[in-house]
Write a structure and sequence with these properties.
Elements (H helix, E strand, L loop, with lengths): L3 H12 L8 H12 L4 H11 L3 H10 L11 E6 L2 H5 L2 H12 L12 E6 L11 E3 L2 E3 L4 H10 L2
Parallel strand pairs: 1-2
Antiparallel strand pairs: 1-3, 3-4
């Protein structure tokens, strides 16, 4: 699907588990690493490779926020809006980001630099409000911290 090295990595992942379907999440992660997101064609390939129903693969991709269902910007900002973050200011934080980036939630800036999404619990309730910027958590956020962080990005 993405070349011999990709196939080798997938084979290695599948070999770690007694049942091929148990490798679903790491294989999806490998697809995302190779492609940048998980397209439907890749979901179908994973379903065939692991001998599971395509609907099961799609259910995992849509359930877990770590899987991107479409291309995103260079910086993928996922704002947690679950109860703890909401009570500590995630809604004003999200509104601030929309104004600052001049996009709505679910959109990517025209230059492809930032994507902004709202997600359910990222599991950092004690340090709310927070967001995930690519693979890193940023916690106890204030609007000033957000501005400083965005300005520090190349």
């Amino acid at each position: 699907m993405y070349g011999a090295d990709f196939e080798k990595r997938v084979d290695s992942l599948v070999a770690r588990y007694p049942q091929p379907k148990a490798a679903l999440l790491p294989v999806l992660w490998e697809v995302q690493r190779a492609h940048g997101w998980v397209p439907l064609e890749a979901e179908e390939w994973v379903a065939r490779r692991l001998n599971v129903a395509p609907s099961h693969v799609h259910g995992c991709v849509t359930f877990y926020t770590m899987y991107k269902q479409r291309p995103t910007g260079k910086y993928h900002i996922q704002v947690c809006t679950t109860l703890s973050c909401m009570l500590r200011g995630s809604d004003p934080l999200l509104e601030h980001l929309e104004k600052k980036l001049k996009i709505k939630t679910g959109e990517t800036t025209p230059d492809g630099k930032f994507s902004l999404v709202r997600v359910e619990c990222l599991g950092s309730c004690g340090t709310a409000p927070m967001f995930q910027l690519n693979d890193d958590y940023h916690e106890n956020l204030t609007l000033e911290k957000v501005d400083g962080l965005l300005e520090s990005l190349p």
